[in-house]
Structures are given as structure tokens and as C-alpha cells.
Amino acid sequence: METPMRVTVTGAAGQIAYCFLPLLLRGEVFGSRQPIELVLLDVEEALSTLRGVMMELEDGAYPLLTSIHYTNNVSEAFVESDVAVLLGAFPRKLGMERRDLLQKNAVIFKEQGEAINKHAKRSVRILVIGNPANTNAAVLAHFASDIDKKQITALSRLDQNRATSFIAKKLKVSPEDVKNIFVWGNHSNTQYPDLFNGVTDGGPLPDWLQDETFLRNEFIPTIQERGAAVIKARKLSSAMSAAKAVVDHLRDWFIGTQDIVNMIVCADGSYGIKKGIFFSFPCYCYGNGSFEIVPHFPWTPFGDPYIEKTKKELNAEWEQAFAALLP
Ligand code: NAX
After folding, report:
1. pTM (whole model) above 0.90
2. Residue pLDDT, tens place only, 260-292
3. Which of 182, 189, 200, 211 is deepest in the core (most CB within 10 A)?
4. Catalytic site residues?
5. 14: Cβ below 6 Å to ligand 1?
6. 42 lines ligand 1 (CB under 6 A)
7. How many CB atoms lie within 10 A of CB 40?
8. CA distances for 3 relative to 63, 67, 97, 154, angstroms
């Protein structure tokens, strides 16, 4: 057995955590030989639920679980963390303006960024899932100033999985036979799902899938609105599919993959996206928590207005979030 890895999960009393934690402890992320020290963080009001989650994890008798600790203390939660999975965020409430949501979360991710900077291992890898995920990651990156920005990513894999699965269903093939479907930009309904680089069976997607009317009226809005459609049907937001996407993201980032995967990462100037913005790009993961933005998949001119829209939204989010934090 290897040295235990300390994994901190925030929002651990929530519904994605409830689906994700069993998958983590079954070895689906870091493999079946990697022991895990689990630290669970949530807010004070959720501590009783968190205690129940901890009891259930103990009752699972997972061989990989070496220890488990829960807390509502942010500093304590990140001590010596190897990996931080940040699910906890302030939810949008009825009548709440988006600006207020951004600012409430900016305060949370500032505090967590500072705590990670102070207490986590220097090699820590951080995955932000809590919404608004791109801007929360940007805030965290700003305040975890000693941590390399390439150690911080946010989740757009659920959007990529949704888009890939949609195309596979149209083609009547398995999702693993469809590659290079990308989702660019913000994890919001301005995201740009793009299939022009898609391949199946070693060749490009059929022309009928690249028809602009189909893209505008069916493919793009279905993927952009998929989260809302799940809420409408289930009366709860996506949790099972989100947990699967978290597993996919972390496993590929740590173990590596031959596929090109979507991750929200700090823009380095690739594709003309302003440096410092957290944006969903096609990435290649080498394993051990390293990745590169893959530069060979430009969107076609059809995508330009979509990219402009999502860029504009991210710039506005950045300004609104930081307005609450910086003098
Ligand atoms: P839940 O509302 O079930 O759970 C969230 C948990 O976070 C709650 O237990 C809450 O008490 C806790 N929390 C709130 N503030 C906290 C803080 N400051 N510190 C620690 N914990 C805190 O939400 P769930 O369905 O589990 O979703 C978690 C987050 O993922 C939400 O923000 C959601 O919007 C976001 N999502 C992001 C996705 C993505 O692709 N990036 C997709 C799925 C999901 O919608």
C-alpha cells in the first residue's frame, strides 16, 4: 500500500458529495491501492448531517479509508491537504441577484484560498465545483497566491460528458466512440458546446450533425440548458452525473489519459483568452496532476459570437466578484 493521501472535501453534507465519496473510497479516482485520509468540511448548520455522512462512510468498511475527520473550521480542514475537492458554495436563493451570489461566494473562496495557501501541502491540487465555478476558482487562485495556478482547476467535465453523450445517442454508438467534443468558456448557460472537432470511428462527424440550424436550435441549447432540465424533472440539481464527472476529471488529471478532456483552467493566452480568466479549454492530462491546454483545436467562425458572449460574461463576473474583495 502507498502513503495515504489527504483529501479534503467541502460541501460534504451535500448531495454531490453523497454520490462522490463512495466512488472515491472504492478507488475509482486514485486507484485501488491508494489509501485516503478524508477530511470533510461544511458549515455549522450542516454538522449533524455531516456526522451522519461520516457514520455511513465508516459503515461502508472501505479498506482504502485510513481516517476520517469532519469540521466546520476552514483552516483545520486544509491542513496538509494533498487534494481539495471544493463542492461547498452559497446557493442562489429566490429573488437573489447574480451579483449578490457572486459576492457571497467570493467571500467564501477568498477565505478558502487563504487557508489553502497557509495550511495545505505545496503540491496540493484543487478542483472547484461549487458555482459560479469559474469565478470561484479565479478568486481562490488570487488568494492562494503561493500555489501555482496550474494546480487549480474547475469542473466543466459534466458539460463535456453531456455533449458527448448527446452526440453518441444521435449516432447510436457508445460515448467512448465519440471524441473531441468540447465545451468552451463559462460553466453557465453561455458555455459554447462545439462539435466541429468531433471524431467518431476515426473520421469527422457526419455533415448532418454539423448543420447550423441543428446546432443553433437543438445541440447547443440542449447542452446549455441541461442542468435546468434536470432540476425541472428531478426537483433537485444534477448530483449523480456531477459526481461521475468529478471522478472523471480527477482520475484523468492524476492518472493521465490519451483523450483530450475539458477542464476549466487559468487562461495562459492560448486561443486569445485573456490571461488569468478561468475558462473551459480542451486539455491534455499527463498524470500526476499536470496538464496542458491543447492548442490545436480552434473553434470555427460559427463559434465566434458564442465565445464572445461567454468571455464577456466571465469578465463581468470577475469584476463583480472582485468588487466585493479588493479596495
Ligand atoms: P448541495 O446544496 O446539496 O450541497 C452544498 C453543500 O455545501 C451544503 O451542505 C452546504 O451546507 C455546503 N456549504 C455551503 N457553504 C459552504 C461553505 N462556505 N463551506 C463549506 N460548505 C459549504 O449542492 P450540491 O448539489 O452538492 O452541489 C454542490 C455545488 O456544485 C453547487 O454549488 C452546485 O451549483 C455546483 N455544481 C457545479 C457543477 C459544475 O459542473 N461545475 C455541476 C453540478 C453542480 O450543479
Report:
1. yes
2. 999 999 999 999 999 999 999 999 999 999 999
3. 182
4. 187
5. yes
6. yes
7. 26
8. 14, 13, 46, 26
